[in-house]
Amino acid sequence: MSIQNATANASAATNPFRAGSPHIWVRGLFLLAIGTAFMLSSAPARSQAPDTPSSAPSIVQADVKLVIGGDTIKNNSKVTLSVVGGSLHVATNKTTVEVTVPSILDIFTNEDSRQDITGAAHLATMAIPYGGSRVLSLFSHNVDVLTLEFTDANGGYHGAIFVLGQGQAAPIKKQLVAMGAKASVPLEVAAQTSK
Amino acid sequence: MKQHTRAAVSVVACILIAGSLLAQPHPFDTSSGQRLSSSSIQIQPVDPGDVPLPAEFSVAVYENLITQIGKTGKFQHVYRSGDKDAATAPDLVTLRMTAQSFNKGSQKKREVTTVAGWSSLTLKIHIADHTGQTLVDRDVQGKVRFFGGNLNVTYDFSKKVAAVVRDTF
Fold first, then answer.
1. Which of B86, B54, B69 is nearest to B136 (CA)?
2. What ipTM was estimated for this complex?
């Protein structure tokens, strides 16, 4: 009901040929200002809508180990891999390295096993008597190894190796290949050969 | 008499100068035992040849080698394969690698048995100057015998290649 009245008042206010009281002019200007504000605010929201899916990461894998080849990122760092737009982002808390899809020369996925106890803890286990450390060495888990070959802006060849949880490498390779990245070994073949 | 003496002295001088010029070692000559000199090196990716070398090992060899060669401090520039700037380097030497043998091994076997599961990787390294003359051509083997992951074999290999480069340049 109130909306109908406001509309009527607005139509009266926006008609320059109709004489009215100053209150009506003020209301008209107020409604005009609000309408303009709505129009301006909604326009960019609509124009951004199609861009949102491309800028949002389609695949995100956290807690990935960058074994080597991170350029500015130290070897054996924990990174987050994400496919954003037309590139693969390798991010730590401090820095992000971007590998664009056209610069990717090849992608490989492989399976390997990693010991659950590594680093300083592994050294500590060596002190266990009666060969206890050898028993602990038996415990390992399967992981995926993702290997990328790519070029930098100057054409220089680079390689990077990532260790992910089991089954996490294939979706990234699939996504990158779908976006146009080159892969000499198709995903299906890679899965068969690794078994 | 004086003219004969002058002529003889000048001939001897010419012979000595010519001899000294011929005795100048070639900048890349290894036969004299002197070290070679070059300001830049370009490293090519591993050629697996017929050896089933997994991609991660090939990449790890390359990246480790870039780091280790850089650490030697023998070259002002260490260029990656395909780097456009390498084309302008005047005395560029090129390092190529071809896989000879590879045994992935097993970290679990190594640490449980200590006598099995060794990883080993043998690559032929070939270093040539910009004219194509061979400077170094030999096999280098990387090994992991006791501790560490299988990929550590690439680190061991790179350290040994860096030692060869250090001895040569």
1. B69
2. 0.78
Chain A positions touching B107 (Cβ under 8 A) are: 113, 115, 137, 140
Cα separation, B97 vs B127, whole angstroms: 9
Q: What is the tens place of the pLDDT at every residue in A92-108?
A: 999 999 999 999 999 99
Amino acid identity for residue A18 in this structure: R
Fold (topology level) of B38-168: Rossmann fold (3.40.50)
What SS3 state is found at B152?
Answer: helix
Q: Which residues of B touch A161 (CB under 8 A)?
A: 56, 59-60, 151
Ranges of each domain in chain B: 38-168
User: Given pLDDT bands bounded at 50, 70 and 90, which one contains residue A25?
Assistant: low
**Backbone torsion region of residue B63, taken as left when φ is above 0, otherwise alpha when ψ lies between -120 and 50, otherwise beta:** alpha
Q: Report d(CA A90, CA A54) in Å as an integer.
A: 17
- The strand pair at A77-84 and A87-91 is best described as antiparallel
Which residues of chain B are within 8 Å of residue A108 when distances are taken between CB atoms? 54-56
Residue B100 pLDDT: 96
Question: Are residues A110 and B56, on separate chains, in Cβ contact within 8 Å?
Answer: yes
pTM, full prediction? 0.71
> Could you give the angle at the alpha carbon of B86 between the alpha carbons of B96 and A73, nearest 5°?
80
The answer to whether B12 and B50 have CB atoms below 8 angstroms apart is no
